[in-house]
Design a protein that fits this description.
- This protein has a two-stranded antiparallel ribbon with strand order 1-2.
- The protein is mainly α.
- The longest helix has 20 residues.
- It has 3 helices and 2 strands, in the order E-E-H-H-H.
- It has one domain.
Length: 129
């Protein structure tokens, strides 16, 4: 089935969607999202604002070196975004694997994946170069 995405913003864009694509839509989308995240991390020219609660203690603004001016970004500013991107890339990589459910540490593993996918949603509008 071809789906026209509508009259706005580009009526000429069509997407081919097969029934099997929505059987495991999370798995299908992971194969599109993963290479885009990898490319974005490699070519990005900046970082968005992030919350300390999303990253480990050592990357938080409270763990950064003192700023020279209050309007400056802290020394962990870009490192926080890199860490968040790494977590999203890790989670989408794992989603693309077929054996990720067969683990002894499944609960902690799933908790990390869920947090990374939540950060993907939270930072969806920050996925720019």
């Amino acid at each position: 089935m071809k789906v026209n995405i509508g009259d706005y913003p580009n009526p000429s864009v069509e997407v081919q969607i097969d029934k099997q694509d929505t059987w495991g839509m999370d798995y299908t989308l992971a194969h599109v999202i993963l290479p885009m995240l990898i490319q974005l991390k490699e070519t990005k020219h900046g970082s968005p604002f992030t919350e300390d609660s999303d990253v480990p203690e050592e990357l938080r603004s409270t763990s950064a070196e003192p700023k020279e001016n209050k309007w400056d970004t802290d020394s962990n500013f870009h490192a926080r975004w890199d860490w968040i991107m790494d977590e999203m890339i890790w989670a989408f990589t794992e989603k693309c694997e077929d054996d990720w459910l067969i683990r002894d540490d499944w609960e902690e593993y799933q908790k990390r994946m869920t947090k990374a996918f939540s950060m993907f949603g939270k930072h969806y509008e920050n996925l720019w170069d």
